[in-house]
Design goal:
It is a single chain. With about 350 residues, the protein is of the alpha+beta class. The protein folds into two domains: about 5-215, Orthogonal Bundle (Endonuclease III, domain 1), CATH 1.10.340.30; about 230-350, Nucleoside Triphosphate Pyrophosphohydrolase. The chain has helices at about 5-20, 30-40, 45-60, 65-70, 70-80, 85-100, 110-115, 120-130, 140-150, 160-175, 180-190, 210-215, 275-280, 280-285, 345-350, and strands at about 230-240, 245-250, 260, 265-270, 290-295, 300-305, 310-320, 330-335. Strands 1, 2, 3, 4, 5, 6, 7 and 8 form an eight-stranded mixed beta sheet that branches. Strand 1 and strand 2 form a beta hairpin. The protein is elongated, with a radius of gyration of 25 Å. It binds iron/sulfur cluster. Iron/sulfur cluster binds near residues 193, 194, 201, 204 and 210.
């Protein structure tokens, strides 16, 4: 290791020992099940948001066998609001594999861990190092940022070349004799000192040799080659009310919110008012010649996802007892809706 790389590693370990007071419920945890659970919950999720979910999951499923035996609907309901529901589905599949094929014993090699559904390179390195003290460097957004700034690297992090370069560098500067401590240290350092905005350079122990700080490049690295394109989608949910029931279905398409429930959805390419919507061919096909009454409709409710903005409206329609069930939908008593897992935007609407 070069002198600069050794300085980097030693500084981070010293900072961690003397100044790192960042606390998280799973910090220092050695149980691979709990570490895995926390890492799956934290993928694409802020620590403050994931924290209560982690505690709820650990309380409900203290061991992997409990999670593996839980009904899918119950687990999805507990996950409700976290987004990225494929994570939840993969998590349950992995729990069932550990409880079944591995008889409850968590895989204890890097290869074994990566073979689990939903576990990528970052999560595998985190579990391998935190639970089994194996020398695998984690590489998440915080680590990319600290490495890019300190070593002054402007290779885009989202390219094959960038991923390879950062993976090699991260592995090189890892303190191989204490991988768990080092991995936690660099992630915490990125979260509290070398932050995305306004890093604390004047108080930073790495400042004297930090390329980005020395050259005034802290706002320019790390670099990404692709700009995130955010798509707008316009959802109109029809709550077809028949006496005290409403129609819902489970989303099965390869789209957002797979496996969650929803009301009848009409998606339009642009905003639409009630009149436009009720006269659209899709709505006329659904309602046919049956009589209905508009009970009420909401203004637009927005939900921001990583790649999409959802603009949703809810329209309540009352129909008579003779109205036939729409294809693929089931009538559910309104008092029983809380038993089903819905996307956050519907949960927010129902809570209002
Ligand atoms: S000096 Fe600033 S940019 Fe460099 S590592 Fe420290 S906090 Fe990050």
């Amino acid at each position: 290791m070069t002198d600069t790389k050794r300085f980097f590693t030693d500084c981070l370990l010293t900072w961690n020992r003397l100044h790192n007071s960042r606390s998280m419920p799973w910090k220092g945890e050695k149980n691979p099940y709990k570490i895995w659970l926390s890492e799956i919950i934290l993928q694409q999720t802020r620590v403050e948001q994931g924290w209560p979910y982690y505690e709820r999951f650990i309380t409900n499923y203290p061991v992997v066998e409990k999670l593996a035996a839980a009904p899918e609907e119950e687990v999805f309901r507990l996950w409700q609001g976290l987004g990225y529901y494929a994570r939840c589905k993969n998590m349950l599949a992995a729990a069932r594999e550990i409880a079944g094929k591995h008889k409850g014993a968590f895989p204890n090699t890097y290869e074994g861990i990566t073979s689990l559904k939903g576990v990528g390179a970052y999560t595998a390195a985190a579990i391998a190092s935190f639970a089994f003290n194996l020398p695998h460097a984690v590489l998440d957004g915080n680590v990319y940022r600290v490495l890019a700034r300190f070593f002054g690297i402007d290779t885009p992090t989202d390219t094959t070349a960038g991923k390879k370069l950062f993976t090699q560098l991260a592995q090189e500067v890892l303190a191989k004799d204490q991988p768990a401590t080092y991995n936690q240290a660099i992630m915490d350092f990125g979260a509290v000192v070398c932050k995305p905005q306004q890093p604390l350079c004047t108080a930073c122990p790495l400042a004297s040799r930090c390329e980005a700080h020395q050259k005034g490049l802290t706002d320019l690295v790390p670099v990404k080659s692709k700009k995130l394109v955010i798509k707008k989608r316009f959802f109109h949910y029809l709550l077809l009310e028949q006496q005290d029931h409403v129609y819902i279905r489970k989303r099965t398409e390869k789209d957002i919110w797979q496996n969650l429930h929803e009301f009848i959805l009409l998606e339009t390419p642009a905003p639409a008012n009630d009149t436009d919507l009720l006269q659209s061919p899709a709505c006329r096909r659904l309602l046919g010649k049956h009589r209905y009454r508009i009970v009420g409709s909401t203004a637009e409710i927005k939900q921001q996802l990583t790649h999409q903005t959802i603009h949703a409206r809810f329209i309540r329609l009352s129909v008579g007892a003779a109205f036939p069930a729409p294809d693929g939908f089931q009538p559910v008593a309104t008092t029983q809706l809380k038993k089903y897992a819905f996307p956050k935007i519907i949960v927010d609407y129902l809570q209002r």
